[in-house]
Every structure is written in structure tokens, then in C-alpha cells.
Amino acid sequence: MSARAETRLWIAQRASAVALALCVVVHLVVIIYAMRGGLSAAEILGRTRGNVGWAAFYTVFVLAAAVHAPIGLRAIAMEWLGWRGRSLSIAMHLAALGLAVLGLRAVWAVFA
Amino acid sequence: MRSDFRARNHPAWWAFLVHRLSGLALAVFLPVHFLVLGQALAGEAALDGLLAWTQRPLVKTAEWGLVVLLAAHLTGGLRLLALEFLPWRDWQKSLLAAAAGLTIVAGLALALAL
Asked: Which residues on chain B are in Cβ contact (under 8 Å) with A14?
């Protein structure tokens, strides 16, 4: 992969990391708050259904994670498995697409 | 250059390993997390069915572990961003300890909530 493309991935990894840092802080607070007394579908959906603010937050969260995770997995595949080249690039694009689709589906599931 | 035990027996190397393994675990967990939430499409009862399963002690423990890994990946990542983007300061040497400490705080807070 060209140095230019590697640089773009490096920037994407840091930019998504900054977005994720903010999202994960909020997420951890919500998790610890919500886990008190156990989780229930009614409690979760009561918070998220029809709530545009949470939907927007989770949409950003999902898209940032869909960018961030495959770039990290790519580094692991290259350094620990020696996997390189076009097949790795295709696999990581599919991973990003898969995470985005599943994640946005989940956002829709708790919003609609 | 070979990365032998001398290079590895260092806090920063362990920070790298924790960051990598926690990231890997989170990436594997993420699709499962999304699929479980997607169950809400099949109705509240379907989601409750899965949530009831998560009340088992072993699953609860695993969930707690995942949240700790998330906290570890967050604090380790903030450390990396500070090292890469902020001008070097002496206090940045303490970031490792701060990251570990904040991770423990998150883990204990969740343990209290469980």
C-alpha cells in the first residue's frame, strides 16, 4: 500500500479515536447507570425509542467504530499474521461495511 | 531488530499489548452486541429473552470484563493521543499509571452497579 494511503488510514484511525473517546465516555456512564438493578428491554427502549438525540449519538458512535475497528484489525493481521495486500484490503473494507450495516440496524431497532 | 524479552519487559510494551488485545476483543464483540440490540426489531419480548440470558453469573462476569476492556482501550487510547499530538511534557510519563487507575475506577464502579 502506498505511503499516502497509509497516511490516510493513520489519520482516519486518530480522527475516529477522538470521536470514539467522547462516545465511549458517555457510553460507560450510561452502562454503569443502566446496569443498576439489571437490564430490561422496556428500560432500554424507554430511553431510546423516538429519541432523535440518542439516535444521532449512536449513529456517530457506530460509524466511528466501523472506521476504527477494521484499521486496528488490519494492523494486527499484518503484524501478527503476515497478511498483506489486496485480499486484506478487501476483507477490511467488508468488515467496515458489515459493522456499519449491523450497527445502524441496531440503532434503528432501538429507535423505531 | 528482534523484539526480545528485554524490549517486552517494559510497562509501555505491556500497555501496547493490553491496547491491542482489548481492541481485538472489542472488535469481535461488536457484531454480537449489534445483533443482540437488533433483536428489538422482533419486539420487546425478543430482546428481553436475550437480556434474561445475560443475567447468568458467567455472562455477567464476561460483560463486566468487556466493560473493563472498553475502559482500558479508552484510557490507553487517550494516552496514545496525548503522546502523539501534545508537545512532550514530563507528566506524560505518568499517563500509563493514570490510564490503569481510571480503568480500575470504571471496573469498580460497574462492579458496584451489577
From this structure: 81, 84-85
Instruction: State the residue range of the domain holding A88.
Output: 3-111
- CA B30 to chain CA centroid, Å, is 12
Q: How many CB atoms are located within 10 Å of the residue B113 CB?
A: 16
Residue B99: CATH number of its domain: 1.20.1300.10
Q: Which of residues 6-65 of A touch B (CB under 8 A)?
A: 14, 17-18, 20-21, 24-25, 27-28, 31-33, 35-36, 38-42, 44-45, 62, 65
Give the residue among A66, A51, A67, A60 at the shortest CA–CA distance from A26: A60
Total domain count for chain B? 1
Residue A65 to residue A19: CA distance in whole angstroms: 9
Note whether A106 contacts B84, CB cutoff 8 Å: no
Tens digit of each residue's pLDDT (9 = 90 or more) over A81-98: 999 999 999 999 999 999
Contacts of B62 (CB under 8 A, 6+ apart): none
Q: Return the residue in A54, A67, A110, A111 with the most chain B beta carbons within 10 A, the one to mutate for interface testing.
A: A110
Q: Quickly tell me which residue has 493481521 as its cell.
A: A77
Closest Cα in chain B to A112: B41
**In terms of residue numbers, what domain contains B94?**
5-113
pLDDT in tens, B74-113: 999 999 999 999 998 888 889 999 999 999 999 999 888 8
Checking ipTM against 0.85, whether it exceeds it is: yes
CATH code of the domain containing A57:
1.20.1300.10
